[in-house]
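Bug report

Summary: structure tokens for DUF1610 domain-containing protein differ between web form and batch submission.
Environment: batch mode, default settings.
Steps: 1) Submit the sequence below via batch. 2) Compare with the web form result.

Sequence submitted:
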Amino acid sequence: MSQTDQEQKCISCGIRIAGTNAASFACPECGHEIHRCATCRKQSNLYQCPDCGFTGP
């Protein structure tokens, strides 16, 4: 999977987030860019950073 494809998907559920009310932020541990959809954020679904393994709500 290319870097562009990964950037367009929610890290928690995997849906494409282009054109949605998604959030993008840096991993608190390593700075890797994380993308999450509005549903996963609202439900506080867990995510795991693919670079360092940090897990957050």
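Above is the batch result. After comparison, the two runs are identical; trailing whitespace caused the diff. The first helix runs from residue 3 to 7. The two ends are 25 Å apart (CA to CA).
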